[in-house]
Amino acid sequence: MTDGRGRAGGHGAVPGYERPDAERALALIDEATIVADASSLILAASENPGGTELAAVRVLETIASRLGARSRRTTVAPDRPNLSIRFGPDPSPELPGVLMLGHSDVVPAGTGWTASPFSPRVADGWLTGRGAADMKGGIAAALQALAAVHRVRPELPLELIVTVDEEDLATGIQAQLASDAEPIERYRACIVAEPTDLAVVIACRGAANLEIEVSGRAAHAGRPEDGASAITTAARIATWIAEDHERLRAGATGLLGSATWSVGRIEGGHGTSIVPDRCTLLVDRRLMPGETGAEALRELEAGIDAALEGSGCTARAALLMEMPGFETDPTHPLAQTAVAALTAEGAAAPVEAWTAACEGGFIAQRHGCPTVILGPGDITGQAHQPDERVRIADLGTAARAYTRMLMDLHGAPHQH
Hints:
The protein is of the alpha+beta class. It contains ten helices and 17 strands.
């Protein structure tokens, strides 16, 4: 996830359902419990890369048991399990449920903190700690909402899936889908609890991570013409990437704009006196909904071929990770319900698009269900930074908005 948003115009909000059962569920939301649960999750450090999510998953299992839910682990790697938390009957095509989605890993704490990053602190209306915004606060709010709805409507199928490795290679969500032998069309909607600053994100670009290995020929730097510089050729490839990025941006339209290219890392060579015989580039490619990483790889390979001409070098490109994008119609009941739920809580409820990526695209692609991203915390101003924090009032607002959405979606007609 990175910064950047597009914003839609008027959303035409519709009133939420005002029902006695919804009011009873809302009365069960307890802000102090959300803060306590989020704090427990922050204490369970789950840095990625460099650690495991097991401690956080154990905390989630304890919370789920307390709330009366069923938990099931799916092992992705040693000490790295996905977790499914279900309330009510299992979702099915005959009785489709609402899915909420989150991830248990956080980015490494890094430096610059004013206190220990994994010791949660509450002060001046804020909860501070690594993962407070992205996204342990959102997960705690989601669990409160699911449990509250289950208390008053135990017949509704509700599920929260919490994946590992979202912040790196997305192996968790891919393993979840690969191991999923249940019928595909069993969700009427997916709500991703990532931090959106309580905006309704209806569109999200996908992402592809690519690696390019350039092989040249070493020689003494006093006679560079005897070798073939992998770094010089890598620079030509980087130039092609920059030029193609500008071409894509020139055709930007709609909320999501366009696909993008970015070279994130270049590493190569042995020293100043040796013509470099190797160079590696790591490249980020943001994908438009419906675009695949394989398509981006083919585009890149064409650019590499052009850059290799006359260089004396060879190169190989590989797709390391792919995360699909999604787009939900702003008039769909899911989007309208999200806007109505936030509006009922006194929130502004802007309808936006992310130029970032999240795992909701996998769910939208696999299960064919409409998807939105909605959560407490600011992805650009708070997440992935020293002294990461989330406004406590927003945790409560998110939980109440989720509660309204879960009730309303089960009262609305099922649409794929």
